[in-house]
Amino acid sequence: MNTVVRNANEFANLKKASEILKTGELVAFPTETVYGLGANALNANAVKKIYVAKGRPSDNPLIVHIDDLSWIKKLSVNVPDVFYELARVFWPGPLTIIVNKSKIVPFETSGGLETIGIRMPQNEVARKLIEISGIPISAPSANKSGSPSPTKAVHVYDDLKGRIPFILDGGSSEKGIESTIIDITSKVPCILRPGSITKEMIEKEIGRIDVDKSLLSSEKFNLLPKAPGMKYKHYAPKANVTVFIGEESLVVKKINETALGKDKIGILATEQTKKFYDDKIFFVQVLGDRNDLQGICNNLFNSLRIFDGVGVEEIYAEGFSELGLGFSIMNRLKKAAGYEVVIC
Ligand code: TXA
Ligand code: MG
Q1: Which residues is 244 bridged to in the sheet?
Q2: What average pLDDT score do residues 217-223 get?
């Protein structure tokens, strides 16, 4: 299959993308979090193609993207009031809300579950695409299953060329990490995946919420996460990743010691620490300024992908404090590392 990449800011290309979606084919498109691989959420055959293109396990549900609240009554049942409180504050935006699904949503979209995740994206291209198509669009991140999520069209192309017909290029994603997922089908709403909307931000609006216990444990596969996709090793570059956590100078010291005498080591460093790494280290990638966590999010997946291109054999990543956005960053880093963590 020939994969075409087109500028998302030209209306003719958006129109073309919507036509492809309506015929039951796939289109990759930008959102403010990461690029999505879209299909008509109500067409089981179209949705099946997403799993094939990504190599994604079929028990891993997709997020349904909408442009208008009028879809809620069609896609879901028994919607609690808290849904509307969350939507009023955080939509359009990087928050996915899990609700009970209606009959029109095929089980291919919900990964066999009775619930679905719904999100109204903020990104203009994404919103327009849904609007012109006139359908809800189910879209996981547009990467090969297991690799880092795409924050640029070229990442999608690298992973899925020859497997999908069309990519809309809308530049770099503004947020850089995937949406926060909150399940409101339980008595107390529960965060299943942390993102740029933090627990603190949500609690300010709706009071106390839970965080899925599996997110709090650093042990490998210790608890089964409630979001099926969170159980897989993910965001991983080809080389093995280890995350080093602790006080900054101790982390640098430990990484230098561990790298000593080894070939082809890659370091995921920060502006604050880059100058302290041994000159003999093969490759140092700077993620950004430690004090600018949004900037770190923007560079995270791109930086992990860069290691693939330079042929490092092992990656040592500096960790972050798990407060606020740091919790979401560490979630992605620990998963990239398959929970290989060294405490310094
Ligand atoms: O920011 C995002 O959410 C991006 C953009 C494209 O919107 N999408 C995204 O999709 O990250 P994906 O498929 O890579 O991740 C969706 C996650 C998976 O971990 C999946 O298991 C979980 O959401 N999920 C989806 N529906 C669910 C449900 N009904 N119950 C529990 N978890 C669900
Ligand atoms: Mg994904």
Answers
A1: 318, 342
A2: 58
